[in-house]
Design brief:
binds NADP nicotinamide-adenine-dinucleotide phosphate; 5-stranded parallel beta sheet; 22% helix; elongated; 17 strands; 314 residues
């Protein structure tokens, strides 16, 4: 494609869509490229209750993000659904190669987000979709009246355990320490829920079962004791959901922008990476709080920086 955009935004989660809204309102010619579903991780979040001023209390991530996308398009952003395979970030004109096209822009905002970290137990990959899942919203209904185990102790693990308790007969949170990391208000709901139980100081070592997940070995990290958990005979299976943090979607940018050893991209407080006219926003960057509100703020800051540079204020 010959057109040179003012800015190409990679990713249509809260960071990318907010960047699109601000860029569009600044009359920057803007393209948002997203390979999958809008929303990134919040698209699969059942309930958002802490986005300031959200119109619907406890609305789903998908619903909130749909309004964000609508708003970005209303202010003139172009949208493309395609996978980015290569980026060239040197020089004044940045080039983004997707499966179908090649796009050019004066600035890039990387807003590619992060994805779920695997639990790390033996045989995990074999049971994905056969008992193992990383998305309660996607898979909870498969476990209607079954037993379910959730690994993790952060906001995601505890919130998703609460969601799963609406479907499963019993939900057991397996956490490697003896206290949760999740926000106190979320913890209180879990402790008060009679369907939610806890296995403290524990990690899942190995999973198994014929075709479908039906047994696992859980190790107590303090005593070394191994407990073998087997599916109830009538059930023949149980669910295992992993929510132990995220891995950044930054593979494409390795060696091209500065990042830490885990792959999170470095930025200053105005979202500038170490490469001229390349910005980063949202969960893919190094930051202390990964939330919808901070992702949206990052996107806004990045686009306003581009606007100011374009109009000569920077
Ligand atoms: P997180 O806050 O990083 O928590 C990860 C949890 O997994 C921790 O409890 C950690 O244990 C455990 N863990 C990490 N590696 C493990 C391993 N190898 N084996 C077993 N357990 C392991 O991740 P998150 O819950 O996905 O949340 C990510 C970010 O999104 C956070 O900033 C969170 O606040 C935010 N978030 C916010 C909301 C909300 O506000 N509604 C909802 C979801 C997520 P330790 O505690 O022992 O380290």
């Amino acid at each position: 494609m010959d057109k040179i955009y003012d800015v190409i935004i990679l990713g249509a989660g809260p960071a990318g869509l907010s960047a699109g809204l601000y860029a569009g309102r600044s009359r920057l010619s803007t393209l948002i490229i997203e390979k999958g579903q809008d929303g990134g991780q919040i698209a699969i979040t059942d309930e958002i209750e802490n986005y300031p001023g959200q119109r619907v209390e406890g609305e789903s991530g998908a619903s909130l993000v749909a309004r964000m996308a609508e708003q970005a398009v209303k202010f003139g952003c172009d949208r493309v659904s395609d996978t980015v395979n290569e980026v060239s970030l040197d020089g004044d004109i940045k080039v983004v190669k997707t499966t179908k096209e090649e796009y050019k822009a004066k600035s890039i905002i990387i807003a590619t987000g992060a994805y779920a970290r695997p639990i790390g137990c033996k045989n995990e990959a074999e049971y994905i979709g056969r008992g193992v899942s990383y998305c309660a919203t996607c898979d909870a209904n498969f476990f209607e009246d079954f037993e379910v185990y959730v690994v993790g102790g952060g906001d995601s693990a505890v919130e998703e355990a609460l969601y799963l308790s609406k479907f499963a007969r019993k939900v057991t949170i397996i956490h490697r320490r003896d206290e949760l990391r999740a926000a106190k208000s979320i913890q209180e709901k879990a402790f008060a829920n009679p369907k939610v139980d806890f296995m403290w100081d524990s990690v899942v070592e190995e999973i198994g079962g014929e075709d479908i997940l039906s047994e696992m070995k859980v190790k107590n990290v303090k005593t070394g004791e191994i407990t073998t958990i087997k599916a109830d005979e009538e059930d023949g299976m149980f669910g295992l959901f992993g929510f132990i943090g995220t891995i950044p979607n930054s593979e494409l940018f390795k060696g091209k922008v500065d990042m830490d050893e885990r792959g999170y991209i470095k930025a200053d407080e105005n979202m500038h990476t170490n490469v001229e006219d390349v910005y980063v926003a949202g969960d893919v960057r190094i930051k202390s709080l990964r939330q919808v509100v901070t992702a949206a703020a990052d996107g806004a800051i990045a686009s306003v920086q581009i606007e100011r540079k374009t109009t000569g204020y920077l």
